[in-house]
Amino acid sequence: MELNERMKTILAAVVHRYFTTAEPVSSAIIAQKYHLNSSTATIRHEMYLLEKNDYLWQPHTSSGRIPTDKGYRFYVDNLMIKNYLQEKEKREIIQIYKKSKEFEKAMKITSQLLSKLTDNIGVVLSPIIYNNIVKNIQFVSLGNNRILTVIVTDAGLVCQKIINVSGEINKDRLNYLSNFINSKLAEKDIDITNLNNILLDELEKVISLQEKFSYIYKFLEECFDISYSENKVYLDGRINLMKHPEFKETDKLNYILSLIEEENVLATTIRGYLGFGKTIIIIGKEGKLKEIQNCSLVTSEYSIKGKSAGAIGILGPTRMDYPRMISITEYISDKLSEILSEF
Amino acid sequence: MELNERMKTILAAVVHRYFTTAEPVSSAIIAQKYHLNSSTATIRHEMYLLEKNDYLWQPHTSSGRIPTDKGYRFYVDNLMIKNYLQEKEKREIIQIYKKSKEFEKAMKITSQLLSKLTDNIGVVLSPIIYNNIVKNIQFVSLGNNRILTVIVTDAGLVCQKIINVSGEINKDRLNYLSNFINSKLAEKDIDITNLNNILLDELEKVISLQEKFSYIYKFLEECFDISYSENKVYLDGRINLMKHPEFKETDKLNYILSLIEEENVLATTIRGYLGFGKTIIIIGKEGKLKEIQNCSLVTSEYSIKGKSAGAIGILGPTRMDYPRMISITEYISDKLSEILSEF
DNA sequence: GTTAGCACTCTCCATATGAGAGTGCTAATA
DNA sequence: TATTAGCACTCTCATATGGAGAGTGCTAAC
């Protein structure tokens, strides 16, 4: 069924009013506050039709209406008016980012900003570096048979890993190995997923058979292991959920937070939406995770030097101010892209 | 007033029963379950005296009794029977720690273990390195005028920091500087707080006046800045609070969690108790933070190679199984000490 | 010093009641 | 045909009421 103009106006009004008050919206309120030139009876009739078509629902007969997931979806896709952050807000965000001279800090600040500005949960996925070309690998001997391996990629990402070796590696040998590796990296572009394949092959040509079966080879294998690129998740503002009346009951809250505590599940879900567009909005049951079926997720990709690197997002009740959530998420992801590209 | 034996037994019984059921404890229950050879009337009389002396209180006349902070304190100091973890539990903990080949992971696992085993919030403070002697400082050039500085201490702690330099530093010069610094470090023991004082003085003798006023000197200053030793806090199990009936009401929960979200406040508080003994127990209002006045904190120091390095702890309602909380916290802090010492 | 007995207090739960908000339906109207 | 006024009906929510049950405090007796 095609919605007529009045129905669209009413739907938008219900979404807006419900977001504002968190109470079912009555026909009278719409007539009063949204200046439709129709009587409550007419509005009621339209609402009845909207309900029959699954855009609205009632908690019980004789109560006002609440948007369904479908209602929200229609609103987001067709009715919502894009919101732009005020210049003042933008300046404040930039100001806060000035403190982040460091990668970890930038991630943390981002999740804090998201949660503070939206009163929801802020989520930041650390950059994935799979598609990054490795520019340089260095070894730093820390003593006690520990070696710090530092990998620098073309996008400027730095990955570190301390490796415990089961025997001593001579300093000169370590230097030789690192020089050899870096000369190979200079010769051809190798991305981080292929380190193991390509470099170990090359190294086999220059290391002795004895070394090949010793801890030195084991060490090299561990160096090139892609588990560098840990899926780190930065979460902030879990408490914010409690501000929303839909989570007044501790059970519901508990249910959601149990998912949140398992940071990885949420991260994997968000990664699953990567590549489908700059900003993705998942409303209620559209998502697969049953713990957050009365929540919506607004995610936005960020990039480093033009390469898509990760995503940030906010998680809150389906009853949210979508235009604002989207503008905040997008603006922050743009800023984060800029900052990470400068690092 | 000196408590007689029966009063002590009754107090211990009330603490135990109240911990188990979270309901005010009646005289009848104590007579039944704790095999005192006295009638309920007698027990009631003793409870009346305990209440008059501030060891117990009643939510209302004609309800059972609940321990006060003073009651818990007396129980912890005088009545409680030390609890030892079962061998099976110890093995499980050791098993889980086997996954932690890495510093960050060890910290995270520790906070998870604490929260899972105690059903409370697990807190882990990262090691402070102030009293550590610096063994070695290395510079790794990352390109784009970024230099990774790695400091290794005698306890084996590794601190890293990426520094953005405002101009290029010649590779040989960087090598010279690092060699010079390391030779000085070998000559005398310098702890991390004194890096700035001692090394900059020494360096002034070997760098040119031009360098002294350039970005190179600035870089060195930043290298030796002790902000390396960031007070990182690992928190786990915020949801656990909700399992406890005392936090059923969202307001109370909110109040506490607002503190928890400010990780640093909690960290600073715990640091404040460092040095007063291996295990410190703060019950209810004994603590200064008003947000957690109906909570108790059990903290235990851990060390690295015999040097006190930091603390772990659990935070939960004052109504907790103190003997078990203590044994878990202590056992885990010992294991953590071992693991960090091996790194 | 201890205890049986009992009146008294307070909570908690189920039930009842009425006001208020909002709808659905119908018949009248433009 | 679309819109609207009017009204009966439904459901929630806040408040009041009463009775059962748990537990105490007190007193008198042992």
Walk me through what this model shows.
The structure is a homodimer of 343-residue chains. By secondary structure, chain A is of the alpha+beta class. The first copy, chain A, is built from 14 helices and 10 strands. The first copy, chain A, has helices spanning 5-21, 27-33, 40-52, 69-79, 87-97, 103-118, 171-187, 195-206, 209-212, 215-223, 240-243, 250-261, 263-272, 322-342; strands at 56-57, 66-67, 121-125, 134-143, 146-153, 158-164, 233-236, 279-283, 295-304, 307-317. In chain A, strands 7-3-10-9-8 form a 5-stranded antiparallel beta sheet, with helices on both faces. In chain A, strands 4-5-6 form a 3-stranded antiparallel beta sheet. In chain A, helix 1 packs across helix 3 (40-52), helix 2 (27-33) packs across helix 3 and helix 5 packs parallel to helix 14. Chain A binds a DNA duplex (30 and 30 nucleotides) through residues 24, 26-28, 38-42, 44-45, 47-48, 58-64.
Helix-strand layout with pairing:
2 copies of one chain form a homodimer.
Chain A: H1 5-21, H2 27-33, H3 40-52, E1 56-57, E2 66-67, H4 69-79, H5 87-97, H6 103-118, E3 121-125, E4 134-143, E5 146-153, E6 158-164, H7 171-187, H8 195-206, H9 209-212, H10 215-223, E7 233-236, H11 240-243, H12 250-261, H13 263-272, E8 279-283, E9 295-304, E10 307-317, H14 322-342
Antiparallel strand pairs in A: 1-2, 3-7, 3-10, 4-5, 5-6, 8-9, 9-10
Helix pairs in contact in A: 1-3, 1-4, 2-3, 5-14, 6-14
Chain A binds a DNA duplex (30 and 30 nucleotides) through residues 24, 26-28, 38-42, 44-45, 47-48, 58-64.
